[in-house]
């Protein structure tokens, strides 16, 4: 099982699936971490998407050939798969493998994420996966900021 995390929603689902299946878990991480600030991450991810940039990965799966099926977990960023998913798919020979998407999103659905998977891994068997709406980090930040503003708290 390979997953990318930001707010923790995908991590929770991925860990539950890993426990249920007795699967290995590999966290997909860029070599240079995304900013801690949500809005900075959104801007960077949008820029990377628009430029077709695939950020270098911190690590790859050494023994990917030993897996027949990969549950690929990721959140939707800007109506698509995060740039590191494109990097992961490009960095591994997944020919003939079955990919099961496990996708969390903030309410706007899957966007073009499935076509990203099909385009960047054309030789895999892409099967119907699992998706769920999870709490939006942006909405949480905005609600907390509004509350702090009402309190007159410095930010």
Characterise this structure.
- The structure is a single chain.
- This protein is of the alpha/beta class.
- The protein has a single domain (2-151), classed as Rossmann fold (3-Layer(aba) Sandwich).
- The chain has helices spanning 9-21, 38-51, 83-91, 113-120, 137-151, and strands at 2-3, 26-27, 69-75, 98-105, 125-126, 130-133.
- Strands 1, 2, 3, 4, 5 and 6 form a six-stranded parallel β-sheet that branches.
- Helix 1 links the parallel strand 1 (2-3) and strand 2 (26-27).
- It comes from Ensifer canadensis.
- Pfam families: Flavodoxin_4.
- Keywords: Flavoprotein, FMN.
CATH top level class name: Alpha Beta
**Poorly predicted runs of 5 or more residues:** none
The count of domains is 1
Radius of gyration: 16 Å
Number of strands: 6
Pfam families: Flavodoxin_4
GO molecular function, one term: FMN binding
Keywords: Flavoprotein, FMN
InterPro entries: Flavodoxin/NO_synth, Flavoprotein-like_sf
Provide a quick synopsis of the model.
The protein has 5 helices and 6 strands. The chain has helices at residues 9-21, 38-51, 83-91, 113-120, 137-151, and strands spanning 2-3, 26-27, 69-75, 98-105, 125-126, 130-133. Strand 1 (2-3), helix 1 and strand 2 form a beta-alpha-beta unit.
What topology does this entry show?
Blueprint lengths: L1 E2 L5 H13 L4 E2 L10 H14 L17 E7 L7 H9 L6 E8 L7 H8 L4 E2 L3 E4 L3 H15 L4
Parallel strand pairs: 1-2, 1-3, 3-4, 4-5, 4-6
GO molecular function: FMN binding
InterPro entries: Flavodoxin/NO_synth, Flavoprotein-like_sf
Protein name: Flavodoxin
